[in-house]
Amino acid sequence: MKSYTGELYWAGDPQLLAERRSTRKLMRRYNHEIDYEDEPTKLSVLKEMGITFDAQHPPFFEPPLFLDYGYNITVGKEFYCNFNTTFLDICPITIGDRVMLAPGVQLYAAFHPQHAATRNGGLKPELGAPITIEDDVWVGGSAVILPGVTIGARSIIAAGAVVTKNVEPDTVVGGNPARVIKRLDPNQAAA
């Protein structure tokens, strides 16, 4: 149960392999074996995966859910995650209150070294950097959030965006790579 922020690590390390295997078994249970209406059991399995959340304001993860470890994921109050979301959580993925993830969102805290000699075919060391999503963010369908990114509060990530850099609060970004589309007024009355 370790975060590899900024460190080279071996994804094939026996301990990491064992942890991913354990998580895969729990994902299979969560995604395919638990009755959809059985919230207590679903929350229990999320805890077994190591996901941290507030039991008084529990999250909702629409199955299927895909993650590497689970124990590096923290979600805030009233978090909603639609189906087919992927968390590569070798490093912390920290999500604030009232965040919504649309279908197919991908959160990648893992990546490969840039130098080919270090990467050496992908069977060598990997790297990781944390992802932070602050309160009241909406991430559109099939958006990709890359390692080391912080998304500021109340922002919107457009569907299909690839977020490679930090996003300021109250900002709408979209595209590949994501760029600012507009700024939001946090004091504007709800429409």
TrEMBL record:
CDD domains: LbH_MAT_GAT. PANTHER family: ACETYLTRANSFERASE C18B11.09C-RELATED (PTHR23416:SF23), SIALIC ACID SYNTHASE-RELATED (PTHR23416). PROSITE patterns: HEXAPEP_TRANSFERASES (PS00101). Residues 2-55 form the Maltose/galactoside acetyltransferase domain. Belongs to the transferase hexapeptide repeat family. This is Maltose O-acetyltransferase. GO terms for molecular function: acetyltransferase activity; O-acyltransferase activity. Keywords: Transferase.
